[in-house]
Amino acid sequence: MVGMKPKDVVPSAAVKFFGAGTAACIADLITFPLDTAKVRLQIQGESQKVEGANTMKYRGVFGTITTMWRTEGPRSLYSGLVAGLQRQMSFASIRIGLYDSMKQFYTRGTESAGIVTRLMAGCTTGAMAVALAQPTDVVKVRFQAQVRLADGGRRYNSTLNAYKTIARDEGVRGLWKGCMPNITRNAIVNCAELVTYDLIKELILNYGLMTDNLPCHFTAAFGAGFCTTVVASPVDVVKTRFMNSADGQYRSAINCTLTMMRNEGPTAFYKGFMPSFLRLGSWNIVMFVTYEQIKRGILTSTNQNHGLGV
């Protein structure tokens, strides 16, 4: 990330790796109900319903949260949290924590990184993260999408049960279901999120609008969240529908896209836009501010130790 001065001790790749994962988990804990509401709104309108499930109609992000609280209890808003935290520790650690390292790789260690280099770095770490952490994303989406059945039961009883059930019923490939649309989605998200944050922060610092502190990080993160939501929503909706679909419902992600367009029209690709923005905006703010503070805390501690000759 931009903002480091030459005299500062630059955090190592390991510090960025674990710092990004920790910051992402904190952001997930705070914003998870918004993400669950987004998933419920995105799958609403699917022609094929789970047999015996309540066909609940959700209206808006806060209406969705209220309906879920009333009909399924407050715990339903955090359904899939364990898989979500597993996802962030592996996912964000790679796509965010290794972003600077990948930029240096493409620039051969120099500090000058153009827009193309940043986009390449964002695409690379996003794809790497999906390849490793896709099963956690599949389980998270399945948990968030499941509603209480007529007999009071649920599709999955626990996170471990979900991993086992999917692998047994759909094969190991089922855990990587939607991998290609997710790689596409995360390449877009990573580029929009990290590159936009990088560029906004750089512009703010270069023009002297703010110093490298909390207001600067907040502004850059908010802008990155909005840009990411606009660009990534269509791919995100397709990814959610495809990953949550019953075995054989869609032949491919492209078939899912065409089916949505034919049955629901182009507006279907922006279903859940407001919760997506509320979630991505707030998630970006919490994550980037926390991440910057973690790095700053480690840098301060390191500088003090160097000053004491430790």
TrEMBL record:
Name of the protein: Dicarboxylate carrier UCP2
Stretches forming Solcar repeats: 11-105, 113-203, 212-297
Locations listed in the record: Mitochondrion inner membrane
Domain of life according to the entry: Eukaryota
Database matches in Pfam families: Mito_carr
Species this protein is from: Perca fluviatilis (European perch)
Database matches in PANTHER family: MITOCHONDRIAL DICARBOXYLATE CARRIER-RELATED
First-listed, main subcellular location of the protein, grouped into a coarse class: mitochondrion
